[in-house]
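INFO  loader      accepted 1 record
INFO  loader      residues=170
INFO  predictor   begin
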Amino acid sequence: MLRANTFDHDSVRVAENNHGGIGDFMSVQAFSTSMPDVARWQGTTLQRSNETPCQARRTLQLWLADVDPDLRFNAVLVACELVTNVIRHVPAGDQRNWVEVRLGTADDFIRLKVIDPGTTYREPRLEPLDPGSMRQSGRGLSLVASLAIRCGTHLTDCGHRVVWADLPWS
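INFO  predictor   done
INFO  writer      dumping tokens
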């Protein structure tokens, strides 16, 4: 579980979770120098609609058809949570009706990225995960962080938001 309650575009957050990593903020520059490389990428840009999370789910299931079912389930869950956040929190409009989903593979993890047009709103907020809560929204980033070995967010030079998570091969 993460110890802070925000993701900051000027820093990345490394998850403290059952994979043994202890989380702390690091600058993007400091993290980038030690961030593991991803060997192969695939991606797609989806038209933004209420069906976009389902489209992302189907796409990830196809891309990960031959991997461990637990990893596939977790990756699909993470992608759906991040795409749903775009639909709910990023304003639509002319030239803004898209969301990009990318999957990168490395020797011991996969990296999921969801890229959106960006917003002037504050950075995504991480709500503490309360296992006994019946609340149906507001827990997505906590869920992502609990499944990831590393996760974070940043803005690109053109103002697009990238939210990413690394999941371990099972």
